[in-house]
């Protein structure tokens, strides 16, 4: 007979803290009380699609976090995680008979919004729902930073690297739509090519002194002259060389360079199939010359030059906001009204109770017992009796 697995309250609390942190990362960057529509096309926000109001076969639409709470409570919602440059659709022409409760003056349609099949509850190239009741394979889904679709790891056409949460991914379809990305991929997305690039830089740097030596070798006077004349001539030649190098350097700096063309000239090849995973800070290595900016803009990829566009930057912003809000905790505000001695007594008492509660619950987990309401009641009764004994003060016999 197998024993039923038990979970202590400590485990529940720890899991709850993890869930709160995840929620803060995704949601704290969005306002839960005010519709985001007046902000225009928000750089990045948490979004939802309402299957009740805009079912499959109709027009795709997305609503902000606040509208999902206030206007679509009890509806069948699809969580879309985050999307970039999106304006809340709630209550516009796509929602027949529904008016936004939070903001009434809305355009009929938000023409700059971009939609995909995620807004109808299907994902990946397999176009399946998530979670999929018919899929028994445990497989994480990863979001493409370009099309923002979610794809199963097994449908990416490549091996998913370790620590994928620290990287960004562009799916094969988006790579093929923008062939110049394969040039970057050959140099930035594969570690072996990065090593080759470093070796080439070192070889190039090693060649510089040799070239300078050839120029510096011309120091001996060609004909018989006095020592002073020879030294003066050499100094003049050195000055000429220095001025020439300076002019060359200034010309090179003034000349606009294109990183993409430089990488293309190296002719490093990469198998152009499957999704591509990019390491952190890879966006900072993309070329931002005027030509490349026009190319990125035409392809709708200008956001790739913005490192604050990443989901990681959005999540960090959410965590920071949550931590700043925790600084206004009502309990901490109450403590501010007490004197120093009272504050220390309460804090020590709280820490002691938390430690004792954790130890108390761990005994149940170690013995495989289920914690009941009577057990919890008994624990707090013991704490109350202990507190009364402490408050009573020391007893002296006469």
Automatic annotation (TrEMBL):
Top-level taxonomic group: Eukaryota
Keywords on record: Isopeptide bond, Metal-binding, Phosphoprotein, Transferase, Ubl conjugation, Ubl conjugation pathway, Zinc, Zinc-finger
UniProt keyword Cytoplasm, yes or no: no
Reaction catalyzed: S-ubiquitinyl-[E2 ubiquitin-conjugating enzyme]-L-cysteine + [acceptor protein]-L-lysine = [E2 ubiquitin-conjugating enzyme]-L-cysteine + N(6)-ubiquitinyl-[acceptor protein]-L-lysine
Residue span(s) of domain UBR-type: 33-105
Zinc finger (UBR-type): 33-105
Pfam families referenced in this protein's UniProt entry, alphabetically: zf-UBR
GO annotation, cellular component aspect: cytoplasm
EC number: 2.3.2.27
GO molecular function: ubiquitin protein ligase activity; zinc ion binding
InterPro entries: UBR7 (IPR040204), UBR7-like_UBR-box (IPR047506), Znf_FYVE_PHD (IPR011011), Znf_RING/FYVE/PHD (IPR013083), Znf_UBR (IPR003126)
Pathway where it operates: Protein modification; protein ubiquitination
Its biological purpose: E3 ubiquitin-protein ligase which is a component of the N-end rule pathway. Recognizes and binds to proteins bearing specific N-terminal residues that are destabilizing according to the N-end rule, leading to their ubiquitination and subsequent degradation.
Protein name: Putative E3 ubiquitin-protein ligase UBR7
């Amino acid at each position: 007979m197998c024993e039923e697995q038990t979970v202590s309250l400590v485990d529940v609390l720890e899991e709850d803290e993890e869930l709160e942190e995840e929620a803060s990362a995704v949601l704290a960057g969005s306002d839960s009380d005010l519709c985001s529509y007046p902000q225009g096309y928000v750089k990045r926000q948490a979004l939802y699609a309402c299957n009740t109001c805009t079912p499959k076969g109709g027009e795709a639409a997305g609503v902000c976090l606040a509208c999902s709470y206030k206007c679509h409570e009890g509806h069948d919602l699809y969580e879309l995680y985050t999307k970039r440059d999106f304006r809340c659709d709630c209550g516009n022409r796509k929602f027949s008979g529904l008016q936004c409760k939070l903001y009434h003056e809305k355009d009929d349609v938000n023409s700059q919004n971009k939609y995909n099949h995620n807004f109808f509850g299907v994902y990946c190239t397999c176009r399946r729902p998530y979670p999929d009741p018919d899929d028994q394979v445990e497989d994480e889904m990863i979001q493409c930073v370009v099309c923002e679709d979610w794809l199963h790891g097994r449908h990416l056409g490549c091996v998913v690297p370790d620590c994928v949460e620290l990287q960004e991914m562009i799916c094969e379809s988006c790579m093929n739509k923008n062939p110049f990305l394969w040039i970057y991929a050959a140099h930035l997305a594969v570690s072996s090519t990065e090593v080759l690039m470093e070796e080439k830089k070192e070889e190039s740097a090693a060649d510089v002194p040799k070239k300078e030596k050839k120029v510096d070798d011309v120091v001996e006077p060609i004909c018989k002259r006095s020592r002073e004349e020879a030294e003066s001539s050499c100094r003049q030649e050195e000055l000429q060389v220095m001025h020439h190098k300076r002019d060359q350097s200034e010309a090179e700096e003034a000349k606009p360079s294109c990183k993409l063309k430089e990488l293309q000239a190296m002719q490093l090849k990469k198998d152009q199939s499957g999704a591509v995973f990019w390491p952190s800070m890879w966006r900072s290595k993309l070329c931002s010359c005027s030509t490349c900016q026009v190319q990125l803009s035409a392809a709708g990829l200008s956001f790739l030059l913005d490192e604050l566009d990443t989901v990681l930057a959005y999540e960090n912003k959410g965590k920071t906001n949550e931590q700043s809000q925790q600084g206004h905790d009502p309990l901490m505000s109450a403590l501010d009204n007490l004197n120093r001695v009272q504050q220390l007594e309460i804090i020590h008492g709280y820490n002691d109770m938390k430690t004792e509660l954790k130890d108390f619950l761990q005994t149940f987990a170690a013995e495989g017992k289920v914690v009941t309401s009577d057990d919890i009641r008994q624990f707090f009764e013991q704490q109350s009796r202990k507190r009364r004994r402490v408050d009573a003060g020391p007893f002296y016999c006469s």
